[in-house]
Each structure stands twice: as C-alpha cells, then as structure tokens.
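RECORD CONTENTS
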Amino acid sequence: MHAMRAETFSGYEGLKLVELPKPAVTKTKVLVRITAAGVTPLDYTILSGKFHGSKAPLVLGNEGAGVVEQGGGTDFPVGSRVMFFGTYGAFEDGTDSEWVTVRKEDLCLIPDNVDDVNAAGIPVAYLTAQVALTLAGFRAGKTVLAPAIGGSIGNAVTQLARALGAKHAMSSTTNHAKAEQAKPLGFNEVIDTSLEKLGDGVRRITGGYGADIVIDGIGGEVLSEALGTLASEGRVITLGYSASRKTTIDVTNLIVPQASIQGLNMFAQPQASIRAAWKVIVSLLKAGAIKPIVAKTFPLAEAADALRYLIEGRPFGRVILTI
C-alpha cells in the first residue's frame, strides 16, 4: 500500500511516499481503508523532532475517515463509514496511508449528512474541544473564549459552545481578512486583534464581565493575554503551543478572580471521556448545529505541501489529505 512516511524527523524533506505491506487485522484492531486524513500541527511538531516519544520512520496522521473492511463485528460492519482519533501518527503508524488498523474503541460511525473529507477533520478538533469544555465545567449561559478562529481548536470550541447554549462564544484573529471571512460563516463574536487588544474585545462583547472559560490551543503571548480576560472563578484549559511553548503569566490574573488553569493531554484521556464527547458531537453533527470547515484538500502524494500550507499559509479551516 502507499503511505506517506517520515523517514527522518528533519522537516518537510523527511516525508517520503513509500510502499508498505497492508496491515493485518488482529483481535483488537479493525482494518480501515482510509479515504481522507486530517493534517494537524502535531504532524509538524513530530516531523520537526520536537515531540516526545515519536520515533522515525513513522507514518504521520492521527485522525482520519474511511471504510471498515474487516474485523469490525456487529458494531462496525464491513462497509461502515468511520472516523477516528488516537495515538496513530505519534506512537504508531498513522492515517497518511491507504489502510490502517484501528482499535475498535477509537472508532465512531460517520453521520449520513457528513462526507468523508469533512469527517476526517472532525476527530482531533471537536473531541479536544468538547473534552476541554467539559473539564472547564461548561454549561449553558457561560461565556467562552477560544483564540484563533481560523484554527481547528478555536473554531471547534466556538461552534460547540455556541451550539450548546453559551451566552457568548468568542474567538480572535490577528488577521483582519480572517475576521471578515468569519462573519458570513456565522462567527459574530470574533475579536480582530489587529484593531483592538484581546482583553478589550472580550470586555466589549461581554459588557465588562469577562470570560468564564478560556480554551487555549495557541500558547505563547496569546495565553498570557487570555488570562487577563477571566471573569470571577474563571477556568483556563491550555492544550497547545503552536505560537510558543513559553509565556509570561501575571499571577494577579489568577489570584484576583480566584481563577484556575489546567493542562489537557488528549492522549491521556480515559475512554469514558472520549465516548461522552463523541455522543455530544455526533448529535450536533446530525442536527447540523456544527460543521467542520475545510480550507483545502491535497492528494496523499502532496502531504508535504499540505503540511507546509497548514503551517506557513495559516488557512481558515482544516487541511485534508484525500486518499
């Protein structure tokens, strides 16, 4: 089978199209023919040699969509369309290939109203977003901030929070064009930080109240600024570092509102949390209340170009490989 594999962790040039044996079904894994795979910042982190535990050579891609070919039993019969997320592409070969064997507990049936390309961009972003909102104690009526509307986490959190009854579901962008692009897509509470500071935007939107919950997938100074937007007893969930692994925290932003900050590692989440998140996500997908946004698709052989487009082009929406 064809697969796009990182032969070395040396940047884009380390990716090579290779021929590998088709994986065999086991008692614990289901054979899935991949039709589409999500491209994520984690792919670049791994390819750059900056992710702990990953070892080359490695087929990247930790989320995907496809069709069950063997081993799914009655829960996932042959021919079922499925999407999934897991340690694939990080600690074992991933979805940038024609076939993958997947643990049954990682699979989720794709709703009929979602095509495979869109489905491939759902697992990482929406599972992470829903788990994070749950950890933060989200409930209807809360105010939520998730910076970076064009990115997968910021977009998914904003959609989920809005669909689940948030009083305000806010995001941000440093790019004025993206702020304008967000409006016709229904994102009406996006703070354009090229025109105003993040904190000023949150206070404007909330009438001075602030954010009950911040879900940060960016890190760096964005996290520092987001801490300054917290309402009384606000909660921050931090889970990404695409801007930077380091930031400076003004501790009074935590002390004065008696706020808290917690990290989230999706690879460490219990299956019960993942199942609960899938239940919410699938229900909202079926109702059309949330919808992944795909910026561009690339064929498998152009995986390096796809990753470069994601990292350097910073598109509004997901980048997907079609296989």
Observations:
- The domain at 125-266 is CATH 3.40.50.720 (Rossmann fold).
